[in-house]
Design a protein that fits this description.
Elements lengths: L14 H8 L6 E2 L2 E3 L4 E3 L2 E2 L4 E8 L1 E4 L2 E7 L4 E3 L2 E3 L1 E4 L2 E3 L2 E2 L3 E3 L2 E3 L1 E4 L4 E3 L2 E2 L4 E3 L2 E3 L1 E3 L6 E4 L2 E2 L4 E7 L4 E2 L4 E4 L2 E2 L2 H6 L2 H12 L1
């Protein structure tokens, strides 16, 4: 009747080592899919297999994988890889590919490829930054001494974008304010409009 105690509990353990080895806590390197569920990590490296979601990141983040639904803390620098979902940025993002819904706040540096028409909201663009694709919304400010280059970007109405260079295929929606370098693009047309009625009257009198 003692055979009941022989049933081996160790069958459960094989799942635990794999979960632990997958956690970035000990090594600082992530090489698998990891749901952080709101955990914070500092100085993290993601390999090409690294995929972390629902995370708060600080320090230096080196990304060759995917980061989704993340908060980047003040002073943090995240370089490379793909970001997706909703990104709340209090730090700096450098040379990333964005496939998500929105990046809000912080600073963007280097080349930002926004390939799913995501929103970029209330960000600062570092010197000579290059932004390709997507939609700008809110207050967007470049470096006036080295304006950011916008390529294939839509600037949403009611946005204010300053110290940028408008490259090919940039759409400025009605009501958006854009200052290229230090010049306000919206002012010259406004000044010329009052002259138009006089032209119309002159033509009418000639007939």
């Amino acid at each position: 009747g003692d055979q009941g105690t022989v049933t081996p509990p160790p069958v459960v353990t094989p799942t635990l080592p794999s979960a632990e080895s997958c956690s970035p806590v000990s090594s600082g390197t992530l090489d698998c899919v990891y749901k952080a569920d709101g955990q914070s990590f500092t100085n993290l490296t993601l390999t090409q297999n690294g995929n972390i979601s629902g995370v708060i990141l600080s320090g230096t983040i080196t990304n060759a994988g995917w980061i989704s639904n993340a908060t980047i803390m003040e002073g943090a620098v995240l370089t490379g890889g793909t970001l997706t979902g909703f990104i709340v940025n209090h730090g700096t993002l450098i040379d990333i590919t964005f496939r998500g819904a929105s990046i809000t706040g912080g600073t963007l540096m280097g080349t930002i490829l926004n390939i799913r028409d995501g929103l970029i909201i209330d960000v600062s663009l570092a010197a000579n930054a290059r932004l390709v694709g997507g939609k700008l919304y809110g207050m967007i400010k470049g470096d006036c001494t080295a304006p950011a280059f916008l390529d294939n970007v839509t600037i949403a109405s009611d946005s204010e974008v300053s110290c940028v260079t408008l490259g090919p295929n940039v759409v400025v929606e009605q009501g958006a304010k854009v200052k290229e370098g230090g010049d306000d693009v919206t002012t010259p047309p406004v000044v010329e409009i009052p002259e138009l009625p006089e032209l119309g009257l002159a033509i009418a009198h000639d007939k």
